[in-house]
Known about the structure:
Number of strands: 11
Distance between the termini: 80 Å
Largest sheet: 3 strands, antiparallel
Bound molecules: glutamic acid
Number of helices: 21
Strand order of the largest sheet: 3-4-7
Low-confidence stretches: none
Structural class: mainly alpha
Helix content: 40-55%
Strand content: 5-15%
Radius of gyration: 32 Å
Amino acid sequence: MSEEKVRVRIAPSPSGNLHIGTARTALFNYLFAKKTGGEYVLRIEDTDLDRSSEAYKQNIFDSLKALGLNWDEGPDVGGPYGPYKQSERFDIYPKYAQMLIDKGYAYECFCSNEDLDEEHRIAEEKKIPYKYSRKCLNLTKEQKDELKAKGIKPSIRFKVEAKELIFNDLVKGELKFDTGLIGDFAIMKSNGTPTYNFAVVVDDMLMKISHVIRGEDHISNTPKQILIYEALGAPIPKFGHLGMILAPDRSKLSKRHGATAVSDFIKEGYLTEALLNFVALLGWAPSDGVEIKNVDEIAADFRINEVSSSNSIFEYEKLNWMNGQYIKHMDISKLTDLAIPFLNMYDLNKYSRKQLEHIIEVTREPITLLKDLVYDTQYFFEEPKYNEVEEILKGDVAKVVLPKFKSEVETYDFNNEENIHDKLAELRTYFKENHGFKPKETMWAIRSALTGRTRGADMVATIQILGKDEVIKRLEKLI
Ligand code: GLU
């Protein structure tokens, strides 16, 4: 490539919420731009007005921003090559289509949908791959005028020259196509809007995109796009096609496997840092084998030509594990901010911010998703439910331990965790020596009474956070 600046783009269609696969494509473009000091552009491909919606567009913006994949140029921030929304560029495409007609690379086609359906039917009957018949290729000016006079609006087709087309894919290596197998394809629809293949080339050309990095589901479009670049006399960008992301059962990743939209992952309590780290591993591998890395570390270690050309499996279990790791190690104040919206069924005002952070701190260890905190923090906010621990509370240990614990706890210094820790240790020793209770049994009785659970946050911290009044209240209710 010449010395020209790296310019990449992510070009989602707002016909759905941002898919995790598109997020991966966005990330790889972002990483490549970061690594090469290039620019990363967001373009909204909404030529299909029926399928596009403002809500999906907003979801795409919000999800990319949540992931930190902020763009240098785009519909909201502008830039020198705007507008960045195809529906605002509808006046641009016809000019280039006309240019191709004038140069003999394209022609008007008056075939109706019925005509084309019939051609498809015949091809199917003959069991041959469909190619447009070129019925309209050689219409005379008079014939065309006559059809237009009847009110028939033409589409515009690109005239495909049969040849061997070779390009070097950044990810897949050399790829060869026989363009003779591609029929003359539409570049403009009869309603005056461009087709995807045409709009994408005109925009990538005008936006000076140097590298097109996208999913391999677009590989079959690439020869068509290269033919258009050639016809327009425009420099051809480098292409890199990423392998697909498959579900654990190797089928197409879909909702039945779990969340697929970035916003749904976030709603379930995945951290965007974990999501980003995880999707990076769908194609990229760290050179030092350490998988947990932030986006800057990944960018530093990212080489597009080393990206795997094969499909990747979306292992939800691995994502869960990774999310748990991020939850364990995240700054506690940041984690608390993220956790609060998940806990809105509780009266959070019961506690100070510092105490809330403490609650999150002592409950985060085993969780994989933020929404797990709802269950794991419940007993801090609500009176415990005792059905799980009925046996323990009815048992001999509890009957002896709880009254004594209650009278002792009155003397605990609740501002001093060490004091609580030492007093509990003394209590365990006392019951062991005087009643032969195992330390574990003593603690089970106390935990069951205060939380209704046999497992949970550290007991000293739990007692301290609940506070003297609440601890005594819970004990009184049981004794
Ligand atoms: N709008 C296309 C998509 O969402 C973009 C494809 C491309 O990157 O060229 O799949």
